[in-house]
Design goal:
heterodimer, A: about 625 residues, alpha/beta, Flavocytochrome C3, Chain A, domain 1, seven-stranded mixed sheet, four-stranded antiparallel sheet, about 15% strand, globular, B: about 160 residues, mainly beta, Alpha-Beta Plaits, three-stranded antiparallel sheet, two-stranded antiparallel ribbon
């Protein structure tokens, strides 16, 4: 029998403390000075989340102080990059606040680079500023620790608790301690989900030992979605997975290379290749979304997915590999040093790989590749929960009382958890956490969290569910002599392999060149259902495997949503991210809308709907 | 790339176990030293390498694409606020030392305790402002950007 640890009377529970969660915990203390704020984190908040390794740039900073950009400029940029499909109220809100987060980071000790001539922050591109961010996460973790009453590290939160007195209201969360095995019950008036997006749901290009070398952190287990979908929260834009063009095998970042070092790409025979794909691509998406002449004249960015499309097609035409031309920039010793620092600050593995393969970018142009797809909501894509916007910005369809509150009362999101807000990155995620925290405190002050009741039945039911993989393993292990092949259970790794294979083949992964269609998606859904049945029989040998089992269950819930959303949106909105072979055109007549889903927690049935897409325009337009 | 631990240097202190974001650094019950239990869930994030007081943890590039014979070592010094790297190529032709700051302030000293700052007024609570705003956003006396201040509206339908 495991110990049960109950933390009662919590006002704000932060589940997952990466950049979003730390921002939430930090800010919650200001608006709720007498409130009880608790963090539950799967790892150790000093090095958890996607920024655990560090960052070499802050990719979302307006520079309002210096008159550089207005929030609406950033909204337009994100809209263009995502082919129109964004929540512009949430984006504007994030952008108008994000600078204050960045200025605080600097005050706390984060080394931001300055432009020695102007005194402004050193720009890498229009939105990016350069930092020495090896300790970005430990620094923001200090802030969160200062604000929180208690930080529970190594708690894998598996489910949200629901109010038994009032339907569709959150009541806390449950999980287990990865070290001690204790059962943890957090009873709380509000929950802010700051958990991560999903790596490793599509089969990675790497094999064997290298399969941890994914672009997004391997510990980003889709828990943001697993938790919220499981609680019946509506999700949006889950079809909008992202594929990254990155340095081959190491997935080292290319942003600083393109923007700061002014490196560029070419095909295997040394030619510029992108422009030759524009005419045929224009037939798919229309001139409104791809106008190379206009882009050239006005510096209007070409959407990332469309550049991926050119990359993928050039390789398929037999003119690979695509190279990053570094040999010019790296002749400058200062730029060469920046090129290496950029990796050491955020993707050390790329430096390791070049050292191992003797790739010196000064004398050799390194290869690029397009990655497997990722499902997340803070980088250049917007998967996540359907959340209310702020009162002063949001149209009626986007507003239900509290900023960043999901469709479940008292349940808020930040970072990857919030849908429709791409290009938030680290600083924007932290900002979203702050916004959610203020709103959560207000929700409590308005008396919305009163009278919550959590039945013993619910707590016991979840306990039995959480530890079942351990029990199941014990029950059937001795039926076989040794090894991992058992007719009664699969282990978490076997389940993950199956998930990745089916997502890859049926939902548009790398081995099928990101292609899918209605037939494939329906087969995929069927396979996901049988996987779900098998996940009920997953076996875990120890607590570490129990952690992996629950991560897999969250990944599975995420994948199911991705499959349903991809099936629902009958068009090819983002060529280069994925293709619907049976609807190979962008269709603004029917699909200039946001997709919204809900999974019924009892039946597991999905309902899909379209939500209007609002855009920011000038007052007189 | 996946980590490994040198037998003669590790003293089993467990700092790596405590910090690993992926929960893959564990203590071996027989040797009482740390090791990587799941290399294919390692992101080569170097959190454990940096945290090891004995410099006992190192990284060997993933076997599926990285040939042997390279080295990327690191020493992170919180007191001095710097991190030092050394990259050695397999062919021995490149050997780089790189140094970067990790913080500009003594650790944690410049983060205010928000429980003790003046509590927000009702007016501020009713506004869209966050802590320290708007002064932390801009130098002038202006307020937060709104649709009105920026002469914008939200319009449903297709816009590019």
């Amino acid at each position: 029998m495991v110990n049960t640890v109950v933390e009662d009377d919590i006002d704000v529970l932060v589940c997952g403390a990466g950049l979003g969660g730390t921002g939430a915990a930090w800010e919650a203390r200001f608006w709720g000075q007498d409130k009880k704020i608790i963090i539950a984190e799967k790892a150790n908040i000093d090095r958890s989340g996607a920024v655990a390794q560090g960052l070499y740039a802050i990719n979302c900073y307006m520079g309002t102080r210096f008159g550089e950009n207005n929030p609406e400029d950033h909204v337009r940029y994100a809209r263009i990059d995502l082919m129109g499909m964004v929540r512009e109220d949430l984006l504007f809100d994030m952008a108008r606040h994000v600078d204050s987060a960045v200025h605080q980071f600097e005050e706390w000790g984060l080394p931001l680079m300055r432009n020695p001539k102007t005194g402004t922050y050193l720009r890498e591109g229009r939105w990016q500023i350069m930092i020495h961010g090896e300790s970005y996460k430990p620094i923001v973790a200090e802030a969160a620790k200062k604000s929180a009453d208690k930080v529970y590290n190594r708690i894998c939160v598996t489910h949200l608790l629901m109010d038994d007195a009032k339907p569709n209201r959150v009541a806390g969360a449950v999980g287990f301690n990865v070290r001690t095995g204790d059962y943890h019950v957090f009873k709380s008036k509000t929950v802010i989900v700051g958990a991560g997006g999903a790596s490793n749901i599509f089969k990675p290009r790497s094999v064997g030992e290298g399969s941890g070398r994914v672009w997004y952190a391997p510990w980003s287990s889709g828990s943001a979605y697993g938790l919220m979908i499981g609680a019946g929260a509506k999700m949006t834009q889950m079809e909008n997975r992202i594929v990254l063009a990155r340095f081959k095998d190491g997935y080292g970042p290319v942003g600083a290379y393109f923007l700061h070092l002014k490196t560029y790409t070419q095909n295997g025979i040394g030619e510029e290749y992108e422009s030759k794909w524009w005419p045929s691509l224009q037939e798919i998406v229309g001139k409104e979304y791809l106008d190379p002449e206009l882009s050239h004249k006005t510096h209007k960015p070409i959407p990332t997915c469309l550049r991926n499309h050119a990359f993928i097609n050039e390789v398929n035409a037999g003119r690979g590999p695509i190279h990053m031309v570094t040999m010019e920039a790296f002749q400058d010793p200062h730029l060469e040093e920046i090129g290496w620092h950029n990796f050491l600050g955020m993707t050390v593995g790329q430096a390791v790989l070049w050292a191992a393969t003797d790739v010196n970018p000064k004398y050799e142009n390194p290869e690029l590749t397009t990655s497997e797809p990722y499902v997340m909501g803070s980088h250049a894509t917007g998967c996540g929960a359907w959340c209310s916007g702020p009162e002063d910005l949001s149209p009626p369809e986007y507003f239900w009382g509290y900023n960043r509150m999901t469709t479940v009362e008292g349940l808020f999101g930040a970072g990857d958890a919030v849908g429709g807000t791409p290009h938030a990155f680290s600083s924007g995620s932290f900002t979203e956490g702050r916004l959610a925290a203020k709103a959560a405190c207000r929700y409590i002050d308005d008396g919305k969290g009163e009278g919550i009741r959590v039945s013993d039945e619910q707590i016991e039911r979840r306990r039995a569910e959480i530890y079942k993989p351990l029990e199941h393993y014990k029950l059937y292990r001795n039926e076989i002599t040794a090894g991992s092949v058992n007719p009664n259970y699969i282990n978490p790794r076997q389940g993950l392999d199956r998930l990745q294979k089916l997502m890859d083949e049926y939902c548009g992964g790398v081995t099928v060149n990101y292609m899918t269609n209605e037939k494939l998606l329906n087969i995929g859904l069927k396979k996901l259902r049988s996987l779900e049945e098998d996940l009920d029989k997953i076996g875990a040998e120890d607590l570490h495997e129990l952690l992996r089992a629950w991560e897999l269950k969250h990944r599975h819930l995420t994948s199911e949503a991705v499959m349903h959303h991809t099936l629902f949106r009958k068009e090819t909105r983002w060529p280069g991210y994925y293709y619907r072979g049976d609807a190979m055109k962008l269709d603004d007549t029917n699909w200039h809308v946001l997709t919204v889903s809900r999974r019924d927690p009892k039946s597991g049935e999905y309902t899909m709907e379209k939500a209007p897409c609002y855009h920011l325009v000038g007052e007189n337009e | 790339m996946p980590t490994f631990v040198y037998m003669t240097r590790c003293d089993g202190c467990g700092h790596c176990v405590d910090i690993c974001p992926s929960d893959i650094m564990h203590i071996d019950k027989v040797t009482r030293r740390a090791y990587n239990i799941e290399p294919n869930m390692c992101w080569e994030c170097y959190s454990c390498v940096k945290a090891c007081p004995q410099h006992a943890i190192d990284v060997r590039g993933y076997a599926d694409f990285a040939p042997l014979g390279h080295s990327v070592r690191v020493h992170r010094d919180e007191e001095k606020g710097v991190i030092a790297w050394r990259i050695k190529f397999r062919n021995g032709e490149k050997d780089m030392d790189l140094l970067a700051p990790i913080t500009t302030k003594p650790w944690g000293k410049h983060i205010p305790q928000l429980r003790d700052v003046p509590s927000p007024s009702q007016e501020m609570r009713d506004s869209e402002l966050l802590y320290n705003e708007p002064k932390y956003i801009r130098f002038d006396e202006g307020g937060l950007h709104t649709l009105k201040s920026n002469k914008l509206k939200m319009k449903a339908g297709v816009s590019y």
